[in-house]
Amino acid sequence: MTPAARISAATEVLADIEARRRPATEALKDWGLSHRFAGSKDRAAIASLVYDALRRKASAAWIMGANTPRAVVLGMLRLQRGLGMDAVAALCSGERFAPEPLSEDERERLEKADLSGAPAHVAGDFPDWIEPSLQRFFGEDLVVEMQALATRAPIDLRVNTLKVSSREEAHDALPHLGAIETPLSPLGLRIAPSEDGRGPAVQSEPEFLKGWIEIQDEGSQLVALLSGAKPGEQVVDLCAGGGGKTLALAAMMENHGQIYATDNDSRRLAPIHDRLARAGVRNVQVRTPRAKADAVTDLDGKIDCVLVDAPCTGVGTWRRNPDAKWRLRPGSLETRRKEQETVLDRAARLVKPGGRIVYITCSILPEENDEALSAFMARHDGFKPMPAEKALGAAQLGHLKTLVRSTAYGLQLTPHKTGTDGFYAAILVRNP
């Protein structure tokens, strides 16, 4: 397919997403099934165009003066891909499979593209209804923070120290991936996003199959380290899901002590067993709930560290899931807040005197972070937040002090400040 034909295809996929209100992955899959002549490179390039358009949907529509799929794609080419008007016009020739030629209005708008007068939610490309929450947290940095959340994310890898002696050993084994060491996590390697959106097939690499590396955002690595899990401790990963943070905790604990991995949805635990085996983890018990019964009742009051990787809106992952931000609704936020309340109350029963709850979200909304913990502490006496500076020092992450945003009870990572996904973390210590 020609570059122009790929643009036409991306416009078609965006129209399908808008008409049927469904995730981009589903629309892209259906397009590929109905256009089998398109090769893997074509499909990857089209997906990249679609996701870039979703990243810049509001700002692209603003400069083009229309919210149609065509307008969004054209505006994205100007704002995200940096193409000038002439370059865009060359792609829109109206010839075989190419988009129709630009109108005079489109030419003028592309030539004069300017976001200087745009509202914050347009310049930052996010739903307008969450602006009050974000403004309350970010203040004058709101637009620059949200613009960073509209960029492409790299592929980050965590080196598994249960299998590899050092990050350098893993790095030297993967020279063909072009990975560099992550700047903040001592365990991370980073692969920059490619121009066409095609990342390397990391999961096919021999080193991945041997358990040397796991795909994990640097921010996720950092908040796992912040938990301070130590060899010999008793730990519960209460929302373990596929096990990404469980694996990180097991490596921190050097396979000594015990981790109990559970989740209220047993289906989310399905991948964890193979991942544990591949990573060489021996100190994890997977507790699968049966008929909605609590799988860790016998551990109440016995646990040193309860990790709550809480269900949330996922706003902090919009670099990777740009279509999710346009599907987010106020009702979704309220649902997640109730789930956070439930899981925090469960964690309170598990942790022993002197133990700690490590609360993590991949969100930047204060309702899911500090405000969730404020409500928790109003319900439960005897818990105090550990100061962020102390938590960073204990985890040997003091170098983050000037990069993270300290909050009332924890700290916030963001793409703008730390180059990671948007993660929140706080540690609540139970009185002895």
UniProtKB/TrEMBL annotation:
Name of protein: RsmB/NOP family class I SAM-dependent RNA methyltransferase
Keyword flag Secreted: no
KW S-adenosyl-L-methionine (keyword) present: yes
Start and end residues of each SAM-dependent MTase RsmB/NOP-type domain: 145-431
Residues that, per the record, bind S-adenosyl-L-methionine: 263, 309
GO biological process, one term: RNA methylation
Pfam families according to UniProt: Methyltr_RsmB-F
Keywords linked to the UniProt accession: Methyltransferase, RNA-binding, S-adenosyl-L-methionine, Transferase
SUPFAM superfamilies, per database record: S-adenosyl-L-methionine-dependent methyltransferases
Active site: residue positions: 362 (nucleophile)
GO molecular function: RNA binding; RNA methyltransferase activity
Family (UniProt): Belongs to the class I-like SAM-binding methyltransferase superfamily. RsmB/NOP family.
Organism, as annotated: Microvirga mediterraneensis
Domain of life: Bacteria
